[in-house]
Design brief:
9 helices, mainly alpha, 270 residues, single chain
Length: 270
């Protein structure tokens, strides 16, 4: 007759926790895939309320403009200064500072940092709005009226995010480059003509950056919309849904950044 000691009980508890976490991840992945598939299906159908996409473009784009401008401008100054300081320790020649910084912005930094900024602001807003509608039974009312919540709530935000993410990233990259040029001029004496150098930017860099804009613009509303639709309870459930949306959107941005950068390295070889 075998006896189970405390160690066996702790091991079983740990195994149970790992299994429960795995099941939760699988369930969340299935739900996320379902939302994505239904969103793409409704987009292909092409039927939606007039003006809904434009209204969401204003909410996502115009209301994020100041936030993106301030954050990307500050990051442009910080990154340019740090690149210049490190370069001075090796070769005190700032002739290619602007060219290298622009290549980094176009290929990765502008899209990735802009995507993370939008993941916090836009993702939280979408999850909070949809989650509030779920807990107040407005989504159930839509279903009773034969309206698809995916088509009514997520598709307009999905299309608006696809457009405005690219616009905001391009604007944020321009702002970061402009503040970087001023920083290089006043901190290292680099003339504006020398800093504005396009020789290091190639077609592969532009394509990679644009693909990241599209990927982030598609991921943020789908992930945050799924978090909002899965909200339960009252205001506490909406709060948890908003927190999950920020975390999951940020993780999705980082994972997509890695996948797209790796694919670009294989395809373009640079």
């Amino acid at each position: 007759m075998s006896r189970s000691g405390p160690a066996d009980g702790a091991g079983n508890g740990a195994l149970f926790a790992v299994g429960a976490t795995g099941l939760e991840l699988v369930t969340a992945a299935r739900g996320l895939y379902s939302v994505l598939a239904q969103t793409l299906y409704q987009v292909a159908r092409g039927r939606r309320e007039r003006g809904a996409v434009v209204a969401q473009m204003y909410e996502i784009g115009n209301r994020s403009l100041v936030f993106i401008t301030l954050t990307m401008g500050a990051l442009g100054m910080i990154l340019t200064y740090q690149i210049g300081v490190q370069q001075a320790r090796i070769v005190p020649d700032y002739g290619m500072l602007g060219a290298v910084f622009l290549q980094l912005l176009v290929r990765d930094i502008a899209a990735s940092l802009g995507g993370l900024m939008l993941a916090t602001r836009v993702g939280a807003g979408i999850a909070a709005e949809i989650g509030s509608m779920v807990v107040t039974e407005q989504v159930d009312a839509l279903r009773m009226c034969a309206a698809d919540p995916i088509d009514f709530l997520i598709v307009p935000r999905f299309l608006a995010s696809l457009v405005m993410t690219g616009v905001l990233v391009i604007w944020g990259g321009f702002t970061a480059y402009a503040t970087g040029a001023l920083t290089a001029h006043f901190a290292f004496g680099v003339s504006l003509g020398t800093f504005f150098n396009l020789t290091q930017v190639h077609a592969a860099d532009v394509v990679t950056g644009l693909v990241k804009c599209v990927a982030y613009g598609a991921a943020i509303p789908v992930v945050s919309g799924h978090c909002g639709l899965s909200a339960t309870g009252g205001s506490e459930g909406v709060g948890w849904a908003t927190t999950r949306a920020v975390v999951n959107c940020s993780l999705a941005t980082i994972v997509l950044d890695f996948l797209i950068s790796s694919t670009a390295l294989v395809v373009f070889g640079t």
